[in-house]
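Archive entry: two folds, one per protein. Generate the first.
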Amino acid sequence: MKLDEFYPQLHHWLITRGPNYVGGIIVFFIGIWFIKWLRNRLRMRMAKRQVHSSLQPFFLSLTITALYVLLVIWVMNIIGWEMTIFTTIIGAFSVAAGLALSGTFQNFAGGVLILLLKPFEIDDSIVAQGQDGKVVSIQMFYTVLITADNKTVIIPNGKLFNEVIVNVTREGKRRLDFELRVGYSNDMEKAKAIMLHVVNASKDILHDQAARVGVIGLDNDCVRFTINVWVDPANFLVAKINLQEAMLKELAAGGINFPKPGF
């Protein structure tokens, strides 16, 4: 291209398109400044409102990323770049990503709802998805439990939030129920008195709640007693073991016999 043709075309481009590019650059730098300012404001606002620490980075990152994308699109429109091909690419990518990550998005949504609605918290003991354990970690995509036998259980949040969750810690106490079978030849009042004595002497139960000992059923070979006491959820298994062992020991010492298996 000859110089005498280049300069007129450059002059024409500067007159017709130059202002758009200048305006786009100005908008871009103003937008960058505004997004940085808004990020600091959002961070302070979430801290003031005590948004869960696991959610703050996500919400902040999602908001800022969306603003950057909108800013770039706005600048491209000001400059006059054609957006059709970019729209097609973004749409195709979004559909493919959505299909590939549908399960991941479900787990993520479950994690957000768990952190917001708090059906359980760290150190709570829960029963869910056939697992019984203490919550040691709540992540965005999964929740980690430690069972009584020290197994680590990782449950996807999508399944966890959409099923029944039993929180055995929230109320601060848990009822311990078990049965004892006593033969008909025994003095039932004596057997019940021994059971009540063991319950009242136990240091593993909560004595501010009334315990209950009584006959729950009559079988062909025995009388079935039920024992209902309240315990600290964290001490549930230990309390059950100690109380049952003490019951058996004291009943045997008091001459109370038990039906033989297969009688």
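Generate the second and append.
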Amino acid sequence: MNVGLLYSRIRRDEKLLLTELRERGHEVEKIDVRKEQFNIREPPAAFDGVDIVVDRCLSTSRSLYTTQFLDAYGIPVVNSAATADVCADKVKNSLALERAGVPTPNTEVAYTVDSAMETIEKFGYPCVLKPVVGSWGRLMAKVDSPSAAEAILEHKATLGHYQHKVFYVQEFVEKPGRDIRVLAADGEPIAAETRSSDHWLTNAAKGGEVAEFELDDRAAELVADASEAVGGGLLGVDLMETGSDYTVHEVNHNVEFKALNDAVDVDVPAAVVDWLESKAEQATGTEAAV
């Protein structure tokens, strides 16, 4: 199997994948998207002979456009452009989950400070303001009072990018000091972890403590449903416990797994490469060669 690895920076996650792929004898073409030019008719030479491309772009915009080009070229890519498009935008993410009947926090979008203030007052305090595009818990705010709401909204309204003028307001979900991240391949869980913190944000990138989590049948069902709702692929499905049930607050398309790999007994990169081999086989109609 000849794998093209899209990247803009090689992190530990990519190193784990590269090591596993090479140990199995697969050829890997590392493709730095910052150095490529994408023509609407012909793919760059770097993609010659690849059986499948793995998108590990750190930049959301580069990921979205490059996967669209690969789709136009007819080159298999994971995750797909369609999945990336849904997962990269929190509005599309929430709409997809709601449309599929997956329990997800109530969310409302407004376009002016005044209308966003009305939504916040309707939800009550606390509630959460999130950027429509973003990761690692950046630029998220737990709004505890009207004065805090006014200050945050005015601040966002003065920022230059149009996305900051799309106010994504979400109900605050009381959780037991942790959330759950599940790495899944086309809806099949590979491994799961809890991320715990005294802070309301429990992301590992924010210093959340990670521990292995054993999924019950209900959680596994929601992971499968959430994965299907956004188009499938190698995904990070984020759940929160809500008493006797769960809510899925987000599905991530360019998921990091280094912390998960350290926390669980599963060999995560090996499981990911197993899945990649099966995807390459489906795409080419032949067994992934080593």
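Annotation attached to the second fold: The two ends are 6 Å apart (CA to CA). The chain has a mean pLDDT of 91.
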